Amino acid sequence: MQSGRPPRWCSDACKARGYREAKAAAAEKERQAEEERAEQAAWERLQEEQRRQHAEYERRRAEEERRRRAGSSSSGFRRGGLSTAEARVVLFDLAELRDDGVTTLKTAYRTAARLHHPDHHHGKGDAAFKRLSEAAAVLKDAGLL
């Protein structure tokens, strides 16, 4: 085929064959373009699904992080009805000690556990020991004990 000028055909049969070949080439080109569009659409769907899954993962991770921080917060997290400040007060009350800044939480916890352990009091210290366990759990979650 010459560029810029219409082709010269030796016969009508050659001309018809040339048109058929050109039409088949155009159809093949259109088929390839349609395949590429379908592949692109499939790739975009895959990317969108991956973005959605990642966003869901990030949302869950942020929720877990928020829960973890809420659980370890020393500024009022409540577990079993106690904040960390209340748990500290319970610990020192059960240990019969003053919170003077010298006595550590660990010392107060051990003293209170020794005073109220049910094995030493044959079941009389159950309620106090449960309260002590709740307070200790709050303080341990907060990283203070």
Report the principal-axis shape: rod-shaped
Derived structural class: mainly alpha
Q: Percent of residues in beta strands?
A: under 5%
Largest sheet data:
none
Q: What is the radius of gyration computed over CA atoms, rounded to a whole number of angstroms?
A: 39 Å
* Count of alpha/pi helices: 5
| Unreliable sequence segments | none
Q: What is the number of beta strands?
A: 0
Q: What percentage of residues falls in helices of 4 or more residues?
A: over 70%
- List the helices and strands in order: HHHHH
Descriptive overview:
It is a single chain. The chain has 145 residues and is mainly α. Helix content is 72%, strand content 0%. The chain is built from five helices and no strands. Helix 2 (84-95) packs across helix 3, helix 2 crosses helix 5 (126-141) and helix 3 packs antiparallel against helix 5 (126-141). The mean pLDDT is 83.
